[in-house]
Write a structure and sequence with these properties.
single chain, mainly alpha, CHAD domain, globular
């Protein structure tokens, strides 16, 4: 007599494979970041953020104690790796500004270069201070236990899109208002999370999608504005400090650079607000 036992559905391995892939990507660049390789430090920050996005979508219980602990460590790792990155970009912006070879301008660039070097040192020290043994253990357990299939992933993607797109709408007021720097920065982070989620969905399904590219473009434009706000804050501090010391040459150079950076940030913000069209979410599967 033939068995009438119900067939057991095969386990969907895609989530576990993608989570494993994101883990390997991060730990592949981690040793190089520890010895101070500039691009590796940047790659580590990106890899840590991508792994956090993967945990949200693929961990069996994203709100569980182990997943939340891993997420916190990854957040600390990304922050440690990012301490010098803003000044890397800031120096590029400053060097691209039209400026003469005056003593003040030369010293201003030298001061920013010194600040960047110190930030890189502090970034490396912060990475060395992190204890990652527990993170490795947590990630191994999370990868081994993941059982996420397409219906579960669809529900999580829908919830994430609803939450993050609403955040962008609140921050940018649908283009009707002039957003503050902190609102632009918040919208940038939401766009980044949407981008990483779209990348993972595309990899899960094995099909190309333009959603990730649309969110990447928004993230990039908002990032360019944020970079100028960060540089502006540094220039403002340097101007006040030089003025307090009676260093007129350096204070004047910082003030002029600050004025140019503020105008550039305002122009980019104006263009972004005028042209913004929130990318539509992919239709549900």
């Amino acid at each position: 007599m033939e068995s009438v036992e119900p067939a057991v559905a095969p386990k969907d391995l895609r989530a576990g494979r993608l989570l494993t892939r994101r883990v390997r990507e991060m730990f592949r660049v981690y040793p190089k970041a520890l010895v101070g390789e500039v691009e590796a430090v940047h790659d580590l920050r990106v890899a840590a953020r991508r792994l956090r996005a993967a945990l949200v979508l693929f961990a069996d219980n994203p709100e569980g104690r182990r997943a939340r602990r891993a997420d916190k460590t990854l957040r600390d790792l990304a922050r440690a790796a990012g301490r010098g990155r803003d000044l890397d970009v800031g120096l590029e912006i400053l060097e691209a500004l039209p400026a003469g070879a005056s003593e003040g301008n030369v010293r201003l660039r030298r001061a920013l270069s010194t600040s960047r070097s110190r930030a890189r040192f502090l970034s490396r020290e912060a990475l060395l201070d992190l204890e990652l043994a527990h993170l490795r253990r947590d990630l191994r357990t999370l990868v081994a236990s993941t059982r996420v299939d397409r219906p579960v992933l669809t529900g999580r993607l829908d919830a994430l899109r609803l939450r993050e797109e609403a955040q962008i709408d609140r921050d940018l007021a649908n283009g009707r208002a002039w957003p503050k720097p902190e609102q632009l920065h918040s919208a940038r982070r939401a766009a980044r999370r949407l981008r990483y989620a779209a990348e993972l969905e595309s990899l899960f399904d094995g099909v190309d999608s333009d959603a990730a590219d649309r969110w990447r473009k928004m993230q990039t434009r908002l990032g360019e504005i944020q970079d100028r706000h960060v540089l502006g804050a540094w220039l403002s501090f340097r101007e006040r400090r030089a003025a307090a010391r009676g260093d007129l040459a350096l204070a004047t150079a910082a003030a002029r650079a600050l004025s140019r950076v503020k105008r550039d940030a305002a122009r980019r913000t104006r263009e972004f607000v005028a042209a913004r069209v929130t990318p539509a979410a992919d239709p549900p599967h």
